[in-house]
Design a protein that fits this description.
Layout: E1 8-9, E2 24-27, H1 32-42, H2 46-54, H3 62-66, H4 82-95, E3 98-102, H5 107-122, E4 126-130, H6 143-146, H7 149-152, E5 155-159, H8 166-174, E6 178-182, E7 196-198, H9 217-234, H10 248-257, H11 265-278, H12 283-291, H13 300-317, H14 321-328, H15 332-366, E8 375-379, H16 387-398, E9 402-408, E10 411-417, H17 424-429, E11 437-440, E12 444-450, H18 454-469, E13 477-480, H19 491-500, E14 512-525, E15 529-536, E16 539-545, E17 558-569, E18 572-583
Parallel strand pairs: 2-13, 3-4, 3-5, 5-6, 6-7, 8-9, 16-18
Antiparallel strand pairs: 1-2, 9-10, 10-12, 11-12, 14-15, 14-17, 15-16, 17-18
Helix pairs in contact: 1-2, 4-9, 5-9, 5-10, 5-14, 9-10, 10-11, 10-13, 12-15, 13-15, 14-15, 15-16
């Protein structure tokens, strides 16, 4: 049954902290008949039916959305080049050829490398790995990074990179080294020469490959591993004892960290991967969870904000091979030592990031960039590995596109982050004559330029952004799944939350609006947060509000937007609301 929506944005509130920009609430108002139909057919509560309607889940897909099954994963041969890649890998195994897995320095690249190296070893391959150093090697597959590898390996397999590495592909071909490219990034008009190019974006226009389009690099690596085992079984070459389910924790880690949509097969892979992660099987992930002081049940937000930053810290500040070693080790003792190293690197990353961000804020004030359509900041002592985070924090603080640049020897290397409605690549294209290199996506991009061009670039980039926005400031919004009551947030609904997980990109946590709420027992939590009880139509519920003061909860009759949460604490289930926004006026 199609869902008819009436989206009702309410006016921004004027009763909030003065330094917080007002949010426009977009409250979904799905058709009541459609909601009741979902409730009846699938035996779910009204809040869950609201979420399913607002995630555009067709009725026929609701069972698989709520209960995805590994047996429903698609044939791995639907991935372009997967069968050819599998055949060449088995040939290398039979010939005792050395294989190199060439990854990348972020979480997706590291987990992709760990997965493929592990599976190749399990089928008897002689395999090595290479992860580029951010400063010494740069991003991706390059001729320089292959210089030593081509002398020692007969087959090179890329993961999470290589789709535009034409020079490197030619370098390998000239030296009679076979190359298999597995990647998920956007290809150029032509493809590099290789034995196989395995990238779902190649067949983006084919309906049968639609479910592959959201795969992260580690998802593509998983498909290659699946194809390898299928080919080995069909051709009676081996691999029957390898259980791919044991590697789904790596798939979940890389997929969540790369912020690809948690939809379709990603949803299934991550759901099962999170389960394996919570079983504490892999020593490296178990040690990382212990250092992060995570509970037994690991959530997607734990991966995104507690585990992934620790793994990323290696690639940002040091050698990513430290993180790879952590994911490959079978010793918990070694894993704890490696996790401690990553923990220390992450603490240093936080210090460096904070120093750079404070310098960026001072620069924004000095150059009076608050009124500019976009913000471009640069620093001599900034670390290249953290400028993307700095740019993201500027966007969060000012609701404007931002670029942060690290200056080294007269060259500025940087990262750009955007707001909805501003295409960074289009804006950078307007500045093409001032840039040495740039590329990326509408919301995130990288760039390089001479410092001599910095002032001119700052002005031209701001003009390009102004042209896209037509001078209209970005209005941050808060999407709500509808109005409900505390009574409807029953124990049954909280049980259904597990079926709606994992939450992340394209499947945000359920967010509801409540009108006429009365706060009680309100108190500060630390320096910047607030906790207490909310009462609504005779029902009460604990709440927590980050970066909000108790004064905001000093009146009755409030309207709040909140995310229901269920936590396991001291062997008990704890239900609470996380308040995202609060206002004093009614919703209508």
């Amino acid at each position: 049954m199609p869902i008819r929506r009436s989206w009702g944005p309410t006016a921004p509130a004027d009763s909030r902290m003065p330094d917080r920009k007002a949010l426009q609430w977009n409250i979904a108002r799905p058709d009541d008949d459609a909601i009741h139909a979902i409730m009846r057919e699938f035996k779910v509560t009204r809040p869950t039916a609201l979420v399913l309607a607002n995630r555009d889940v067709p009725n026929e897909a609701i069972p698989s959305f709520l209960n995805p099954r590994l047996q429903d994963l698609s044939d791995p041969y639907l991935l372009p080049g997967a069968r050819t890649a599998a055949a060449r890998i088995w040939q290398a195994v039979q010939r005792n050829e050395r294989i190199l897995v060439h990854g990348d320095y972020d979480v997706d690249g590291i987990t992709s490398t760990a997965l493929l190296v592990s599976v190749l070893r399990a089928v008897g391959a002689g395999v090595d790995s290479f992860l580029p150093h951010r400063l010494e090697d740069g991003y991706g597959l390059t001729a320089a990074s292959l210089e030593k590898s081509v002398k020692e390996h007969q087959l090179i397999i890329t993961v999470d990179c290589g789709i535009t590495s034409f020079e490197a592909a030619n370098y390998a071909k000239q030296r009679d080294v076979d190359l298999i490219i597995t990647d998920h990034h956007q290809p150029a008009g032509v493809l590099p020469e290789a034995v196989a190019v395995c990238n779902p974006k190649i067949v983006a226009d084919k309906p049968e490959a639609a479910h592959l389009q959201c795969l992260a690099g580690v998802g593509v690596a998983f498909k290659i591993a699946h194809a390898l085992l299928k080919y080995g079984r069909d051709e009676q070459l081996g691999g029957e004892t390898v259980d791919l389910r044991n590697y789904l924790d790596l798939v979940a880690l890389g997929t969540i960290a790369d912020m690809v949509p948690l939809w379709g097969e990603n949803r299934c892979l991550v759901r099962y991967g999170m389960h394996i992660m919570s079983q504490q099987g892999r020593p490296g992930i178990r040690a990382l969870c212990d250092h992060a002081k995570l509970s037994e049940t690991v959530r997607a937000q734990d991966v995104a904000f507690r585990l992934a930053p620790r793994i990323n810290a290696a690639g940002r500040l040091a050698d990513p091979n430290c993180a790879l070693k952590l994911l490959l080790t079978e010793s918990y003792g070694e894993a704890m030592a490696l996790a401690a190293d990553l923990d220390a690197l992450n603490t240093e990353r936080q210090r460096v990031e904070r120093a750079s961000y404070l310098a960026a804020e001072a620069q924004i004030e000095k150059l009076q960039l608050e009124n500019s359509p976009a913000m471009v900041v640069a620093g001599e002592n900034w670390v290249r590995g953290v400028v993307g985070i700095v740019a993201s924090r500027i966007v969060q603080a000012y609701d404007k596109p931002a670029i942060a640049l690290a200056i080294e020897d007269g060259i500025a290397h940087g990262s750009a982050r955007s707001v909805p409605g501003v295409d960074l690549v289009a804006a950078l294209r307007e500045c093409d004559s001032l840039l040495s290199r740039y590329g990326g996506h509408p919301m995130a991009a990288g760039l390089k330029l001479d410092v001599a061009n910095l002032d001119a670039f700052r002005e031209k980039f701001s003009l390009a952004v102004q042209g896209e926005t037509k001078g209209e400031p970005y209005q941050p919004t808060l999407d709500c799944d509808g109005e409900t009551t505390f009574r409807e947030l029953s124990s049954r609904f909280f049980a259904e939350l597990d079926e709606l997980r994992p939450f992340g990109h394209s499947n945000r946590p359920p967010t509801f609006c409540f009108e006429g709420v009365s706060p009680r027992y309100v108190k500060s939590l630390g320096e910047h947060h607030t906790r207490g009880q909310l009462f609504h139509c005779g029902y009460g519920m604990p709440f927590i509000a980050f970066n909000r003061t108790p004064e905001e909860f000093s009146k009755d009759g409030l309207s709040v937007a909140a995310v229901p949460q269920l936590w396991r604490q001291h062997d008990q289930d704890v239900q609470q609301l996380e308040i995202l926004d609060v206002r004093t006026e009614a919703l209508r």
